[in-house]
Design brief:
The complex is a heterodimer of chains A (427) and B (140). Chain A has 427 residues and is of the alpha/beta class. Chain A contains 17 helices and eleven strands. Chain A has a four-stranded parallel beta sheet, with helices on both faces. Chain B has one domain: 2-Layer Sandwich (Heat Shock Protein 90), CATH 3.30.565.10. Chain B is 36% helix and 29% strand. Chain B has five helices and five strands; from the N terminus they run E-H-H-E-E-H-H-H-E-E. Chain B has helices at residues 21-32, 37-58, 86-89, 99-103, 111-117; strands at residues 5-12, 60-67, 71-78, 121-127, 131-139. In chain B, strand 2 and strand 3 form a beta hairpin. Chain B starts with a strand and ends with a strand. Classes of the chains: A alpha/beta (427), B alpha+beta (140).
Chain lengths: 427, 140
């Protein structure tokens, strides 16, 4: 299988100072500092954006599409993530924001929150049919999906086999433009307005589908610059709000799980917390829940690295302005969908990136070497060698991309030893 | 034949928060060695149940894990009170866990049965007042 690695999260070498903040925070130990600059190990990165958040020099960035890229298409559709609704100080009506999107250049708007409601209904259907492995783990957060794929393979069978709301929204919006408005398919450009760098990766390297139905991903922070100045005085021309409260609530941790109206759910946010829950799930420690919602970002999508507003403040604002929504828009007007539209078409597969070698015997030999090297390291996990821990350096050495002498503590004792030997020679 | 990989963990008694730490390390090692996810899962569950058992009943103990290319052997040894009736202890739902442990949600009487279910071979050697050794083998 050909494996390409597109990543949204990239490094600006000019800005990188070679400090160790990012290597220590990376949940998949995907970053090393080499020759004074951070390097991302492509196979391991899950695009969670944690390094973007912690880098004090803003050297980590997310590759997103510029706003001007919408001009490549004649008919431009915006798919706003519900997190967008919480970004503006001067707006008290979601409809104003959606009309604003048309004002700044889009021809149509399809709320991702509406697609989220459909995913909720499809999830309830599947739960009722009892065809799913319990507990079911949400696939809405692309960083967590990628994390499970590389680090928790035994939980792959628990993944909800449904499209994330972004993908479903893109499919439905495109279909609506073709069928209802008669727009030629090649003229349509569908753009996700995103809080999340991992969604950019989904576009270039989809999981569960062969191709992504989205044409571009624009950061919320980029759209914000265009929207914020005009929203204060904007008078909405039409009613564009079609999502209810349950869909909008997907913007924060717990929203997806609560929408299912089940008591036995668990919602976890923040990548370290998610890892700890997934570990417990693997050990069968958690047996009392049917549904697990896991978001990589603290607070959920509102806490995404591509947003403007503080995630908790954004959530509070969304709660205020979404009060007048009905709880469930789709209950009144069920769209024409069948489950086939929502189900993923390709199974999620395990990518064994942590494996030391394809040959078990060689892997075991490397493991022994690794343990021996680890014994010789100071166990300070200081990060000065450029690896996140002594254990990681030992692993790097056996994988052939690190040297034991990269450890400055061991190097210092070696140098001291040499100095002593030389001085003894001189005597 | 590659040399057996040995891992040893001291399981701290009365530390429920840390329970699962050894299981996590075993999982990582097996993943790096490229074991099948299903095998890793079985080892993780057996290991975790074993850890918890030693915390609840024996004030901790030692877990030794021996990894060969075709089998995983887990040996749990403690100097706890010992099990008077091993056959009874193996029955699903039977537990002698303290109220404190039950208050924390443990003591469902599934520990030993689960360990047996998730492994290919399990032997329990126990002497009242001396301690217990549980040996589990997972073939792969």
């Amino acid at each position: 299988m050909k494996q390409t690695y597109f990543h949204s999260v990239t490094l600006d070498k000019e800005k990188c100072m070679g400090c160790t903040n990012c290597i220590r925070r990376c949940p998949t130990e995907a970053i090393r500092v080499r020759d004074g600059k951070a390097r991302i190990i492509k196979e391991r990165c899950i695009d969670c954006g944690e390094c973007i958040r912690v880098c004090p020099y803003h050297a980590k960035q997310a590759l997103t599409d510029p706003f001007s890229s919408i001009e490549k298409f004649k008919y431009k559709i915006a798919l706003p993530a519900p997190a967008l609704y919480g970004q503006f100080h001067n707006v008290r009506d979601i409809n104003v924001i959606l009309n604003g999107l048309k004002e700044i250049g889009f021809d149509d708007v399809y709320e991702v929150a509406r697609a989220a409601e459909i995913v909720t209904i499809a999830t309830m259907d599947l739960l009722m049919q009892k065809k799913l492995e319990m507990p079911v783990i949400s696939t809405a957060c692309p960083a967590i999906l990628r994390l499970i794929r590389v680090r928790f393979p035994s939980l792959i069978k628990n993944l909800l086999p449904l499209n994330a709301p972004m993908d479903l929204a893109a499919k439905l919006a495109r279909r609506r433009a073709i069928e209802k408005k008669g727009i030629p398919p090649e003229d349509i450009g569908v753009f996700f307005i995103s809080p999340c760098p991992a969604k950019v990766t989904t576009l270039h390297e989809p999981l569960g589908e062969d191709t992504s139905p989205v044409d571009g991903v624009i950061a919320i922070s980029e759209v914000y610059k265009k929207l914020a100045p005009i929203l204060g005085s904007l008078k909405p021309k039409e009613k564009l709000v079609r999502a209810g409260l349950k869909g909008v609530n997907w913007c924060h941790s717990g929203g997806e799980a609560k929408a299912l109206s089940k008591d036995a759910y668990l919602a976890v946010d923040g990548i370290d917390n998610v890892i700890s829950v997934l570990e417990s799930l693997e050990d069968n420690q958690i047996s009392h829940v049917e549904f697990v919602e896991a978001c990589a970002c603290a607070g959920g999508c509102v806490g995404g690295p591509l947003t403007v507003e503080n995630g908790y403040a954004a959530r509070a604002r969304i709660e205020q302005i979404s009060k007048k929504l009905t709880s469930y828009e789709t209950e009144r007007e069920l769209p024409q969908i069948d489950l086939e539209d929502v189900l993923i078409s390709k199974p999620i597969e395990y990518v064994p990136i942590l494996k030391l070698d394809d040959d078990r015997a060689v892997a075991m030999q490397k493991m022994q070497e690794m343990k021996a090297i680890e014994e010789r390291l100071p166990k300070l996990d200081c990060g000065s060698c450029g690896a996140p821990s002594c254990k990681a350096l030992a692993e790097d050495v056996v994988r052939g991309f690190g040297r034991e002498i990269d450890c400055i503590h061991n190097l210092r004792s070696k140098v001291n030893e040499l100095v002593r030997e030389i001085s003894e020679l001189e005597m | 034949m590659a040399e057996t990989i040995k891992l040893q963990f001291n399981i701290d008694g009365n530390n429920f928060v840390d329970a699962g730490a050894a299981s996590g390390k075993v999982k990582k090692t097996l993943t790096q060695l490229g074991f099948d996810p299903a095998v890793i899962r079985r080892a993780a569950i057996a290991m975790y149940e074993g850890e918890i058992n030693m915390v609840i009943h024996a004030d901790g103990g030692v877990a030794d894990v021996y990894i060969d290319s075709d089998k995983i052997r887990i040996v749990l040894s403690d100097k706890g009170p010992g099990i008077a009736d091993v056959e009874l202890a193996m029955k699903e739902g039977y537990s002698t866990a303290s109220q404190e442990a039950r208050d924390l949600g443990f003591g469902a009487g599934m520990g030993l049965p689960n360990m047996k279910n998730y492994t290919d071979e399990m032997t329990v050697n126990s002497k009242v007042g001396v301690g217990t050794t549980v040996e589990m083998i997972i073939n792969c």
